[in-house]
């Protein structure tokens, strides 16, 4: 009887494609032939399940450690949050135990990967084997061809057992602390086209300025070639240390010095707790927007009136020639609301020409449409 190693490559591929990540990792250690065949298996998309009881994320990381080149095949990553529930034993996850071989491989990656892209605290959490969320930045070191990253809907609660294994900074994940910045992004973010990340709405509570702190959003905005960004639950706080996007830009002045405007074409900001000036700063750093969707948390909004938001929307229009009113969705309000505010504010679309002429609302709408079309044509002629 022929052994399995005598089977044609096509048959071996069919067999190996039925195996899970752990089995594939083990099969790669059998012989060079198996390792070569397994590398032929297309791995275009993958779902990472954080805290999943069967340790799937830990096993996937071991798979990448044994064959780092496999990560370069992945173009689409999705994250599911399966946090432990104290009252549900079915969700409990045992501590992961790294083998000496695993630790040896990571040791060999310290100089070229780990020390370059990860914080020391992240590395400690990875070796701790408790909070698999810490693995995400490491995994992103191997996925340099990633085009889409969906970080999912992150809940606000954290099980007590993993508290020693999460960032000490409030409202952060390990991803936030290791994202990087222009010129030094995690490799898996360097070619990203589409990014999605939310904070579960139940974390936006009471009088506290809860939400993901907005400083993690800025590096994402400036990823070279990024086209779509969807974020939820971003927050700033003028009352505490003047925590605004402008302040944050000042903190990281060197990292963002000379950075070109964002290439994002579609921007969705949901359940945000930011101020008018924050939106205006985002608008100042965009130039390619074609679609803009904004919703803010009505219970905890930092905007005093529709007029605040209208001023920011106008800046978006000024800086993004391809943004049209029919591709604008703000707080579920009809676009007529914003046009009326533009008219009430008497925005000078003609830049000083006939500046003092009083215009009816209907005349202003016609002028606005002509202005939008003119900007689009001028942009197309560049």
Give a description of the structure.
With 382 residues, the protein is α/β, with parallel strands linked by helices. It has 2 domains: 1-41; 43-344, no CATH class. It is 37% helix and 13% strand. The strands form 2 sheets. Strands 1-2-3-4-6-8-9-10 form an 8-stranded parallel β-sheet. The chain has a two-stranded parallel sheet with strand order 5-7. Helix 8 (174-178) links the parallel strand 3 (148-154) and strand 4 (194-199). Helix 2 runs parallel beside helix 4 and helix 12 (276-284) runs parallel beside helix 13 (306-319). It is elongated and about 90 Å long. The N and C termini lie far apart (70 Å). InterPro entries: F-box-like_dom_sf, F-box_dom. It comes from Orbilia oligospora (Nematode-trapping fungus). Residues 1-50 form the F-box domain. This is F-box domain-containing protein.
Entry keywords:
eight-stranded parallel beta sheet, F-box-like_dom_sf, 15 helices, elongated, alpha/beta, 382 residues, two-stranded parallel ribbon, F-box domain-containing protein, F-box_dom
